[in-house]
Amino acid sequence: MPGFLDRLLRRDPDALPRSVRADQALDLLAQGAVLVDVREKDEWRSGHAPQARHVPLGRLATDARRLPRDAPVVVMCASGMRSRGAAAQLRAAGYRATSLSGGLAAWRTAGGPVTR
C-alpha cells in the first residue's frame, strides 16, 4: 500500500529530489525532462548543453511560462548554487523541478555534451 502511505504522509510519488547528480539528470532527460540553463548570457555563449533552454535566473519569474508543466525540469548553472534557488522557485510555481548538482562541470564529467 505505498500509494496510501504516500497520501497519508502527503508525499508526492511524482516529486523529484531537490537536486540530482549529472548521471541522474542525463537519465531524466532521456525520459523526457526539460533542461534549463539559468546562467547569464556570456556564460551561455562560452558553452552550454545543446538541448538546454536558456532562461537567465533574473528572467525566470517572467519566462517560466515558456516551460512545459507536464514534464520534469532539470535546472543547471555553473556550479549548482543558482540552480538550487531556481529549482525551488519553479517548484513554488507548480513545476516538478530539480537542480543539477555540480553544474556544468559535473555535466561535462558525466559525458553530457557541450556546444558553443
From TrEMBL:
Query: InterPro entries recorded for this chain?
Result: GlpE_sulfurtransferase (IPR050229), Rhodanese-like_dom (IPR001763), Rhodanese-like_dom_sf (IPR036873)
Domain of life of the organism encoding this protein:
Bacteria
Write the record's keywords in alphabetical order, separated by commas. Transferase
User: Domain Rhodanese: where?
Assistant: 29-116
Quote one Gene Ontology molecular function term.
transferase activity
Listed name of the protein: Sulfurtransferase
Q: Which organism is it from?
A: Actinotalea ferrariae CF5-4
Lineage of the source organism?
A: Bacteria, Bacillati, Actinomycetota, Actinomycetes, Micrococcales
